[in-house]
């Protein structure tokens, strides 16, 4: 929704790997160079490791986009603890028959495939992403497969990409023969502060927006909170743009980033190890957090029709906001907080998330709905019908339209009056 407001052709900070947005820092450039070097010089094994979210998969996507057409590539990206038979996954990666075949058949057919490719002047490259999940026994199987290589030519090359645990596994004494066959290896570190700023500007510009959309101070804070990890940078920047659009800000400044980061940390949705010295206290172990739900304390009572005791301590009307759009949840939370309203929680409009909401802690549930409700499941309707506290159904299209209107304060005032009217004991709203 913020894309047109900021002049973007597409979202600049998606969490999905996209080689079109690849920013080649010195570290990423070196990793990509070594990947290309390993291919050109027929290294038997190439290992690229790095922390979670440092951009390893994006580098692989870039490599695949630019790879020589004479190289036949198979990609395994779904490794996990119940990985299963390696040869079946390899056959699937190269589009070979694999169902109903035992290990001997799979091995023989794969060897024939490699030799046939080599006879036609093509090399075969197997890429395993998230390789840290592979046990030592599976890695040893890979080493045995590499024995097919000819005296002078590597007819099968293997690239392993994974987290730091992969390197630790490869250092085991029983894998010394495997380690000796690694021709190229590199560990990808997070971005430095200057690189983080360039990364943010690069992605904004690539998406068609202004390179200087984030202030220097904002970039500094993003680096501090993210630790220079690209995925966390994307998470912070994307949310900051949502907040910025909700307030119709032309630029993202440090204050906005600080607010976003603190709210993410309070909700348990952002790693605390990158917390700044000024950050607020983390959510307690008893905090209930689900998906995008803002943290709320567990209810001390079951959902019931007990009399509402509004604002015992705060003197404010306590509400929860549920809407499909994260933007509308953020916008309404900030808007209504100006009218003696305490927003206890914001959450997606799903049955699962509503079940996590301690209804005893709120006075009114604000539900944002539009005209198209056919996609909402029956479980959600049942929960709303059985809800024992006041519920206000609001037109999300009207809320969305108020975003671009100069009289947003008036919209918030009228909406707050509706909320207060549902709880007679509540204090009067603040104009």
Mind sketching the topology for me?
Elements: H1 2-5, H2 26-40, E1 45-50, H3 56-66, E2 71-76, H4 86-93, H5 103-119, E3 123-128, H6 136-145, E4 156-162, H7 164-170, H8 176-180, E5 182-188, H9 193-206, H10 216-226, H11 230-246, H12 254-266, E6 317-322, H13 326-336, E7 341-347, H14 351-355, E8 364-369, H15 378-386, E9 391-395, H16 396-402, H17 408-421
Parallel strand pairs: 1-4, 1-5, 2-3, 3-4, 6-7, 6-8, 8-9
Helix pairs in contact: 2-3, 4-5, 9-10, 10-11, 10-12, 11-12, 11-13
The share of residues in helices is 40-55%
What's the helix-strand series? HHEHEHHEHEHHEHHHHEHEHEHEHH
| Strand tally | 9
User: What gyration radius follows from the Cα positions, in whole Å?
Assistant: 27 Å
Structural class, from helix and strand content? alpha/beta
End-to-end distance: 29 Å
Low-confidence spans: 273-313
Biggest β-sheet strands, sense, barrel: 5 strands, parallel
Shape: elongated
Q: Beta-sheet strand percentage?
A: 5-15%
Query: Averaging pLDDT over every residue, what do you get?
Result: 83
Total helical segments: 17
Q: Strand order within the widest sheet?
A: 2-3-4-1-5
Structure description:
There is one protein chain. With 431 residues, this protein is an alpha/beta fold. Helices cover 41% and strands 13% of the residues. The protein contains 17 helices and nine strands. The protein has helices spanning 2-5, 26-40, 56-66, 86-93, 103-119, 136-145, 164-170, 176-180, 193-206, 216-226, 230-246, 254-266, 326-336, 351-355, 378-386, 396-402, 408-421; strands at residues 45-50, 71-76, 123-128, 156-162, 182-188, 317-322, 341-347, 364-369, 391-395. The strands form two sheets. It has a five-stranded parallel beta sheet with strand order 2-3-4-1-5, sandwiched between helices. Strands 7-6-8-9 form a four-stranded parallel beta sheet. Strand 6, helix 13 (326-336) and strand 7 (341-347) form a beta-alpha-beta unit. Helix 2 packs across helix 3 (56-66) and helix 10 runs parallel beside helix 12. The longest helix has 17 residues, at 103-119. The radius of gyration is 27 Å and the shape is elongated. It starts with a helix and ends in a 10-residue tail after the last helix.
